[in-house]
Write a structure and sequence with these properties.
The chain is α+β, with helices and mostly antiparallel strands. It has six helices and 14 strands. This is 60S ribosomal export protein NMD3.
Length: 238
Amino acid sequence: MCESCTRVQANPDQWVAAVQLRQHVSHRRTFFYLEQLIIKHDEAHNAIRIKQMDQGIDFFFVNRSHAGKFVDFVGEVAPIRKRNDKKLVSHDQKSNNYNYKYTFSVEICPICREDLICLEDLICLPPKVAASQRNLGPLVICTKVTNSLALLDPFTLRHCFLNAEQYWRVPFKALLSSRQLVEYIVLDIETVSSEVVVGGSKYVVADAQIARVSDFGKNDIIFNVRTHLGVAKKLVGS
């Protein structure tokens, strides 16, 4: 066993590098998905301690390179921004050795899958940036989150992908999240466009008649809407 590992076993607080993983949003869907990927790929196997924190998790490593590798993995599967800091812990004047503790602060993009985004909202993407993204919107849906965001215009099926650098250059927030979704039943549907594949998922624009599940047995309210989920017609007919 190496000297560093022996010290850690004797005192788990003797970490060298810490990764502070955060997502500043209430539901943190992307964060939970990332946790599953970390477990699936066993990317935290070098961590000597894992601590649940407010809005995230801290990972502690005995080796700076292990922490750096972990941060690289997170950046490959989620849009992040990061900051590196170091703090001098001790200095041996005789040997001129310096001991530091390193902290990697990693923030995950707050946009999650199925979030509704208003491109003209002042708290969201400015119109000039929206124009550069093939005139999407003003309303778009985030259909997939990897190391980039897939944004889909539900009325035209135009779409774009924003990587981490593009997002953090002009960060924006969601107008509504999946927590605010309401369940409806499709009564009738008619497709009005051809099929488009975005991020591995199929979408078709369709006109539909729908009713709220909560209204059944209470009233006869029916809504006529246009949806990007017209592919459901094929699923119903199959």
